[in-house]
Every structure is written in C-alpha cells, then in structure tokens.
Amino acid sequence: MQEYKNSQELLVEIEKTAKLFIAEFDSLKEEEKNIMVEGVDRSPLQMIAYQLGWLNLIMKWDADEREGKEVITPSPYHNWNQLGGLYDSFYAEYVSYSLDKLIEMFEKAVAEILAWVNTFSEQELFEQDARKWASSTPSRWPVWKWVHINTVAPFKSFRSKIRKWKRQNTLL
How far apart are CA 49 and CA 150, in angstroms? Predict the structure, then answer.
C-alpha cells in the first residue's frame, strides 16, 4: 500500500486516480451501463455505485461520530463478513440513475471527500486512534489508510475493470 508523507500527497493522488477512473466512462452509452461481460464481476453502473457507496459511507462514519452517534462499521445492517450484501445495497441505491447523473454524482462525491480530508489535521489523518470509527477494527488503521482503501485503491483497480469491461463489450 502506498504511504503518504502528508495530506497534500493523499489529496493529489485521490484527485488524479478519480479523474482517470471516471474518464473511462466518457465513451459508454446509457444502454450499456447495466451490461455484464464475461471476466468482469460488475457492470459499469455497479462500478460507480460501489465507489459512491464507500465514499459516502466513510464520510458518514465520521459525521456520525462527530455528532456523538454510535458508529457501526461497515453498517448497522452488514458485518465485515457480509460485504456482498453491502455492495448490493449500494447497487440498489443507484440503479435508477442515468450514467450521466452517476458520473456527476461521482465527481461531486470526490469533491466532497477532498474537502472532508482537508478538514483533518496531519495528526488526525496519520495517527492511530484519532477517530473511534477508524480504530473500530483490529487493525486500528489511521484515517488516511481508510481514505486510501476507499478512494485511490478502488479507483485504480476499478479503472482496470472498466477498461477490461470495454474490451470485452466490443466482443459482444
């Protein structure tokens, strides 16, 4: 996993990888968003919904903690060993949106996560136990690692998935 020296490096990497990921959707047609292809485990809609779900979820954990609410990760309805159900809830939440609207929502969510990360001090971002929600698993990750795992890492891996999806889709 990539390590960052400061919040600015993390912010730059989030922005860069988000742009590369979402740019892959520019050439897709609306009628293609739900197509599944062999060798790719998600449709284009599901790929964006996954990103939106996690972006919103980690910011919600932090907002809930700041409001004094109990934060149950990953959600009150899903345990860590039930992530498939969590992902299905993300897909269901975004299934009715057009591809253009999903892209717009993704870009807005990325802007929000960048602004949110900017609210943290370097200490809050990089030290363990700065947030209860971030320390709620045995790994006790600092906030930056949660951010990386739910932004940069999936933006990169899902960029590969959408590129493979596009190659496979041309074979249909």
Answer: 13
